[in-house]
Specification:
Layout: E1 8-11, H1 15-26, E2 31-35, E3 48-49, H2 51-59, H3 63-69, E4 71-73, E5 75-79, E6 85-89, H4 90-93, E7 106-108, H5 111-124, E8 130-131, H6 154-164, E9 185-186, E10 191-192, E11 195-196, E12 203-204, H7 212-231, H8 241-266, H9 270-287, H10 291-301, E13 315-317, E14 335-338, E15 341-344, H11 345-349, E16 354-359, H12 369-382, E17 387-393, E18 403-405, H13 410-414, E19 421-425, E20 431-435, E21 456-460, E22 466-470
Parallel strand pairs: 1-2, 2-8, 13-20, 16-17, 17-18
Antiparallel strand pairs: 3-7, 4-7, 5-6, 9-12, 10-11, 14-15, 16-19, 19-20, 21-22
Helix pairs in contact: 1-5, 1-7, 7-8, 8-9
Length: about 475
């Protein structure tokens, strides 16, 4: 494959680069991926895959291999040197409606195994990592990479142990020795023209909280579908600016929280020792004694609460949304009936398309499945191979091909609605748009038909062009 045939070059075959390459190919874009190492890594750096990344791996069709290769960590124990401890059962806290995910534990897996699985999937898609190649015309800074890296020798390792251990110890044989330096770095821009930075190229920080690799994977998952639409001539180039706008705040917040956490647990100054020995046990124990705090802490750690509330891609119409997911939020997981079997809603959202979910509602203003089914059909005809549309209905039986069953009304409840509403879910499983009509109002005078908030809503579609999405409003006809 020549360079002119390859619209995207991915530099680096770590978890972020491999995710990026896999996603671009899955979205129909030719890609070339290079790495300066002559062979794949055989040692690990990151050890934990968070539940949100397991959801991503499910969409990428590698989650079965990931789960088979690692092991679950269903709980966390926070132990202080005073003897006090706090135990968090992840199953209970990730089952909560706002956190709910099928993957209710952390997953322990060495990074080299993660890379092996992602590389194998990429090869199945016809792309091979080109190794021993270095990009020389792009530099991180004007001074270059600096002293060439080398692993510590046996004698150096022995000397370090002699300095740090209170009792004599002799190194007989080392299995794996590597230098570790605590870096803290974040680039001011994730995009510079046609160059995009993801993962460690964009943000490097302490390992506290097992967030780094997972954040890099989500960087790639966020960017790939947007870049694919632009490369394929479907989306406007301005859409790519949303990558920095959405992911840069996540990276900056990550640096702040992990640095503070690492300073407390590993710092040797007087302040860190006081916080670790006296103050932290009191504060953490009392705060995490509250269920709401435990739920938020675990949801943030698992990265299922990541959202993009200020994204330029967000749109909404209607009011009084109460507990409904907002534009930018992760699409909520729930059990529904698809083709006569109970499945997860995320299964319906998988793939490379946007998904329009038309909820019939459960109150007196609920819309008929047949009516919304006609609207869903028109949406799919308007955006072939780009958008799928489905009707979420609590009706006990429906034979409509675009209907999804919600017999226990849990999907309506999980999405915080009891009336007709529409949600547009992006390919990265985040809400891009929501719309709902006015609630019916009680009148003492002669009732008149309710005024819809939006029958025809102007919005920018997935191709970056002005179009219309018909919202399920009372009294409208498809």
């Amino acid at each position: 494959m020549s360079d002119t045939d390859t619209p995207v070059l991915v530099v680096g075959a770590g978890p972020s680069g491999l995710t990026m390459a896999n996603e671009l190919v899955r979205h129909g874009v030719a890609v070339r991926i290079v790495d300066q190492a002559p062979a794949p890594a055989t040692t690990s750096r990151a050890l934990v895959i968070q539940p949100r990344c397991l959801e991503i791996f499910e969409d990428m069709e590698v989650v079965a291999d990931v789960l088979a290769a690692g092991s679950e960590a269903p709980s966390l124990n926070i132990v202080f040197n005073t003897g006090r401890s706090v135990r968090l059962e992840l199953h209970d806290l990730l089952r909560d409606p706002s956190n709910y995910t099928e993957y209710q534990s952390l997953h322990m897996l060495f990074q080299d195994d993660t890379e092996r699985i992602l590389t194998a999937k990429l090869e199945q898609r016809g792309v091979h990592v080109e190794r021993g190649l270095t990009v020389v015309d792009l530099n991180a800074d004007e001074h270059g990479p600096g002293p060439e890296y080398r692993e510590p020798t046996h004698d150096e390792f022995q000397a370090m142990l002699d300095q740090r251990l209170p009792v004599p110890a002799t190194v007989v044989r080392e299995q794996w020795v590597s230098r570790y330096r605590l870096h803290r770095h974040s680039v001011p821009r994730y995009r510079d023209g046609r160059v995009f930075l993801v993962g460690d190229a964009a943000h490097v920080h302490s390992p506290a909280g097992a967030q780094g690799m997972n954040t890099g994977i989500q960087d790639a998952y966020n960017l790939a579908w947007k870049l694919a639409l632009v490369v394929r001539g479907i989306g406007k180039e301005s859409m790519l600016d949303s990558y920095h706008a959405e992911r840069h705040p996540i990276g900056e917040r990550l640096l702040t929280t992990t640095d503070r956490f690492f300073a407390v647990i590993a710092g040797q100054n007087a302040t860190a020792r006081f916080l670790r020995g006296r103050l932290a046990p009191q504060i953490v124990s009392r705060v995490l004694a509250r269920h709401s705090a435990r739920k938020r802490f675990v949801g943030t750690l698992a990265q299922v609460r990541t959202s993009y509330p200020h994204s330029s891609l967000n749109r909404q119409h209607g009011a009084d949304w109460q507990d409904a997911p907002a534009p930018g939020d992760r699409a909520r997981q729930v059990d529904v009936v698809i083709d006569g079997t109970t499945q997860h809603l995320h299964t319906l959202l998988h793939g490379t398309r946007h998904t329009v979910l038309l909820f019939t509602g459960t109150d007196e203003g609920a819309r008929p499945v047949v009516e919304l089914g006609r609207i869903a059909h028109r949406i799919e005809l308007a955006y072939p191979n780009l958008v799928r549309a489905r009707v979420i209905s609590p009706e006990p039986r429906t034979d409509h091909p675009l209907a999804v069953g919600d017999p226990d009304r849990m999907a309506h409840q999980r999405y915080g609605i009891d009336r007709a509403a529409a949600f547009v879910i992006r390919p990265d499983l985040h809400v891009g748009y929501r719309c709902t009509p006015n609630r019916r109002r009680r009148r003492t005078r002669r009732p008149r038909p309710p005024t819809p908030r939006c029958t025809h809503t102007d919005l920018t579609d997935v191709r970056g062009q002005e179009s219309s999405l018909i919202c399920p409003t009372p009294g409208s006809t498809p």
